[in-house]
Amino acid sequence: MIYQKIILAKKEQQKLLAILIDPDKISLAQIQSLADKIKQSPATHIFIGGSIVAENVMDDFILELKSHTALPILIFPGHPSQISHHADGLLFLSLLSGRNPEYLIEHHINSVEILNNSNLEIIPTGYILIDGGKETAVQRVSQTIPIERDNLDLVYKTAKAGEYLGKKLIYLEAGSGADKSIPTEMIRKISQNTSIPLIVGGGIRSKEAIENAFKAGADLVVIGTAFENDVNFFNK
Ligand code: 1GP
């Protein structure tokens, strides 16, 4: 069980790292060498998906990836069309910072049929978008307003409401390619005041920033752009 292992890691204060792959930016032929680089990295999970991914690419992409990695592959969907039976699990994201019903419940309803026919481990995740210093794809596509970087109280209440709603993970997201990552005091506040594992991502571009997020209380850090731009990011 993927989630049980995340809980165990949290209990043992073992930090987790996910590499986010956007299938729109990588060709099938590149997957093997990408998987080799992932193997050399400290990654414990692979997230796959994005705000916009062309239809019908996920299955082939995940099958190919699976033949080159043993890491758990979790779908990080921007749309129900990105759900593939071939992954190991699904972050069933509810965009709690936004007020767009499509991303709070509509896409989820539209996913039921495909989920009923799959063995994916479904992990309910409270997804909270924070201002990352520029408009990112998730903001554009979801048409929601991120929470201001200094509004710790609202982020706290949103995360706590997510926990009370039964979410199993909280994901603090600055948006892929953000100029500024999640402030450490925000990570600290949420990690100290909630009991479920905390994912932090968006705009993290150095090992130091990863460390700082961990030190502030992130249980799992997500790296997308930094690895996409330089597959040797972790070797340096
Ligand atoms: C996006 O949190 C992830 O959902 C990763 O963001 O691409 O900025 O690393 P980056």
UniProtKB/TrEMBL annotation:
HAMAP family cross-referenced by the UniProt entry: GGGP_HepGP_synthase
Catalytic activity: sn-glycerol 1-phosphate + (2E,6E,10E)-geranylgeranyl diphosphate = sn-3-O-(geranylgeranyl)glycerol 1-phosphate + diphosphate
UniProt name for this protein: Geranylgeranylglyceryl phosphate synthase
GO molecular function: imidazoleglycerol-phosphate synthase activity; magnesium ion binding; phosphoglycerol geranylgeranyltransferase activity
Entry binding sites for Mg(2+): D22, S51
NCBIfam families cross-referenced by the UniProt entry: GGGP (TIGR01769), GGGP-family (TIGR01768), PRK04169.1-2 (NF003198)
Transmembrane segments: none
Keyword flag Lyase: no
Domain of life: Bacteria
Cofactor(s) this protein cannot do without: Mg(2+)
GO terms, biological process: glycerophospholipid biosynthetic process
Assigned EC number: 2.5.1.41
Organism annotation: Flavobacterium terrae
Protein keywords: Lipid biosynthesis, Lipid metabolism, Magnesium, Metal-binding, Phospholipid biosynthesis, Phospholipid metabolism, Transferase
InterPro entries from the UniProt entry: GGGP/HepGP_synthase_sf (IPR038597), GGGP_HepGP_synthase (IPR008205), GGGP_synth (IPR010946), IGPS_HisA/HisF (IPR050064)
CC per GO annotation: cytoplasm
Purpose of the protein: Prenyltransferase that catalyzes the transfer of the geranylgeranyl moiety of geranylgeranyl diphosphate (GGPP) to the C3 hydroxyl of sn-glycerol-1-phosphate (G1P).
Binding site for sn-glycerol 1-phosphate: Y171, L172, E173, A174, G175, S176, G177, G202, G203, G224, T225
Family: Belongs to the GGGP/HepGP synthase family. Group II subfamily.
